[in-house]
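Bump. Still looking for ABC transporter permease structure tokens.
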Amino acid sequence: MSVLRFAARRLAEMAATLLGASFVIFGAMYLAPGNPASFLLSGRSASPQALKAINDQYHLNDPFAVQYLRWLGQVLHGDFGRSIEYRTDVSTLLADRLPSTLLLVALALVLVVLLGLALGWIGAVRGGATDSTILVTTTFAVGTPSFVAAVLLQGLFAVKLGWFPSGGTGSGLPDQLWHLTLPAVALALYLIGMLARVTRAAMLEVLGQEHVTVARSRGVPEGRLIRRHVFRNALGTVLTTGGLIVSTLLICTVLVESAFNVGGIGQLLELSTTTKDFPVVQAISLIIVALFMTVNLLVDLLHPLVDPRVTLTRRRSAA
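Sorry for the wait, here they are.
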């Protein structure tokens, strides 16, 4: 199957999945208890006329199917509606907050890839006490939830030692990176441990294969052997965790952003869920689903490049 045909087919599947996800996301908010009109009234009593005006403004009394089709049509035109809480366009809110989240996720992803691959490589190659130390360390990392890591890092490095800011996003790229260092570490800690263990296991499996033994018997230098014959063959297995890594980063950023008061879409999602700000929750949820599927598509396209033994057809059937 050609790359273009495979990509076209996957894009069609993504569109169908997004359509189904949009229905679930839109319906889930309406199944939850409470009503956005009660938030707009701030607990105050209102006359039937005032309540009707609010419901008419936000189309809250329309049948569910009518509301869903209206919202879906707006989304297809790039309009996510108007925030009930902030009284502004959802697109404007996302444009203001998305850069902070993307920078935080990108910084955490760099830490995950660099440290996860490095620790897994070292553990598989060195063995002995080094491998045992890495196993213990990564076990601790995997067993530490992001919100717990956020509290510990904030208490130690921000409050007690004062090395990093305790919250906020800063202004200017250097200051933003400084403010987001602790949130990125808290976000990446679990995934660093997971990726290190996956990399170590994949490399140890390849190290035991016959072609590695043959290459070593032929006098191939150890460094070249590890790079070309071991790590490269193990990279296909490691790459399959890409979708899980990105999805975990996107989900956990809600907790980490709230802990460090990072004004990103994660914190916005938490606040909007609490206040039942339907348009904001629906927009962010749909964006997260779309990003997750996009990453999976990229992983599927990159896998044959990393491991030529895997074809797009085989990769798709395996998925």
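The two ends are 16 Å apart (CA to CA).

Edit: fixed formatting.
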